[in-house]
Write a structure and sequence with these properties.
The complex is a heterodimer of chains A (265) and B (279). Chain A is of the alpha/beta class and 265 residues long. Chain A has a single domain, classed as P-loop containing nucleotide triphosphate hydrolases (Rossmann fold), CATH 3.40.50. Chain A contains eleven helices and ten strands. In chain A, the strands form two sheets. Chain A has a six-stranded mixed sheet with strand order 6-7-8-3-9-10. Chain A has a four-stranded antiparallel sheet with strand order 2-1-4-5, with no helix packed on it. In chain A, helix 3 crosses helix 4, helix 3 runs parallel beside helix 5 and helix 4 runs antiparallel to helix 5. The radius of gyration of chain A is 19 Å and the shape is globular. With 279 residues, chain B is of the alpha/beta class. Among the domains of chain B are: 120 residues, P-loop containing nucleotide triphosphate hydrolases (Rossmann fold), CATH 3.40.50.300; 34 residues, no CATH class. In chain B, the strands form two sheets. A six-stranded mixed sheet of chain B has the order 6-7-8-3-9-10, sandwiched between helices. In chain B, a hairpin with a 2-residue loop joins strand 9 and strand 10. In chain B, helix 4 crosses helix 5 and helix 5 packs across helix 6. The longest helix of chain B has 16 residues. Chain B starts with a strand and ends with a helix. The relative contact order of chain B is 0.15. The chains are: A alpha/beta (265), B alpha/beta (279).
Chain lengths: 265, 279
Amino acid sequence: MMNIEITNLCFTYPTGLEALKGISLTMNLGEQVAIVGQNGAGKTTLVRHFNGLLKPTSGSVSIGDWETTKQSVAKLASRVGYVFQNPDEQLFSRDVLTEVSFGPRNLGYAKGRVDELVQRALALTELADKTGTNPYDLSPTWRKMVALASIIAMDTPIVIFDEPTTGQDAVNVARIAHVIAELKKEGKTVITITHDIDFCAENFERVIALSKGQVLLDGPTREVLGQEEILAQTYVDPPQLTRLGKRLGLKEVVTRQEEFLKAIK
Amino acid sequence: MAFVNLQNVTYKYPLTKEPVLQNINLQIQEGEFVSIIGQNGAGKSTLCYALAGFVPHFFKGEISGEIEVDGRKSSESTLDEWVLNVGLAFQNPFNQISGAKYTVFEELAFGLENIGVPRDEMKVRVEEAMTLTGIRDLADRSPYSLSGGQQQRVALTSILVMRPRLLVLDEPTSQMDPIGTREVFGVVRRMAEEGMTVVMVEHKVEWIANFADRVIALKEGQILMEGKPNEVLTSGLLVENHFGVSRYTSVAREAQQRGLWKKEKLPVTLDESVEGFRS
């Protein structure tokens, strides 16, 4: 199985900054996991171990039967796709089609498969009418979608999004939620770093809260997001409706609108 | 006379076909904290650039109408005169960092060095600004080693250190955790109380409702609506136009339909919702 196994992972940057201090986690194939926590908690450092951009100082990370220290980043790219927080760190081609085709082509897929994957990724991200445009002539919103498409097109079993909703308007947030739901249907693992806790509550089944390089909470979304006092340690506020339900004295933890309306009747 | 005065401003970038701003009329009083909302592509960043002088002085393009800040016309000023009065924090903090400096402290002193502030005063002003935004512990780090949210705090500090009369912030909290967001809104509110005029583009409507004096909703380069935060942020017009609204507002609107929300006025903030559902 293509699970992610993390055992006693520690990572110290060359500057001496201890970013991860003993993390052990398993993420199963097909899970939708959100990672939350304050700025500097180690969220990005953690996920950059999954595709081998960073290697553990001690401990280990395995993707299926591959230990990341024993594989090249290029090889790991066939199992783990990583969408950067800032699309400008990721995009380099002269037009959208070339950009989105680069990944699958680089993984050595046959031309027919490349075309199929690229068309699917472009349709999913609503970029089909922009294939000839230079990514840098697009607005930051659409550049973000190009970054998403170029990773989705690689058809990896595991996809990581680093703060996908940052600076996105409501329409685009819904678009990104749709992409995540589609990937879920295909049985892929989706791991997302986010500060948007309402987005997290509405789209993920498991939440991991990190604090100062350690796992503070890990479990089903409702359970984790209901722990207001513990979450406060890593500066995460529960979703708006959860906070409202609590203030109104509702017994159960609510995260979504329908649940809330039922509970106050 | 308003501190900021935009009269019929219409603007087109050199390579765009349609104007990005159309007939913008906007007056902002000194010390007012105005928040701008709108979808991606509505012209929010362009409006920030216009206030900060980058439009048209840096980006060129075609502009008509008049932009005035503190009685000075943008059309009659150069960019280096203009930026002494107006500070802009870019949407992407990465674009703000000079790349010329090794530490956050030096980065924050860079703007002051450029305008010839004496060394002793420079140190004091940098220390003060770092304390204000809570980044003293980052002073010796490389700006590039910071997380997105930390870089945003540095970018904001690098503007505050210049003590602009008009502070323009383009989504300054987009990569921040709630504590960072709370601190930024708190600092900005305080600056406004002290007389700094603030224009802030934001998507986080609950925070806007708690802190801003006025909200301007932009759509396709035009002002769709403006007014007091609660009035604008609970307006049905925003829903019709696919603006992001607070979950508190949407749940109360739905509850109102089902007879579970009795008040006429809808909430934007947690306190307003609690009060409304209890009554």
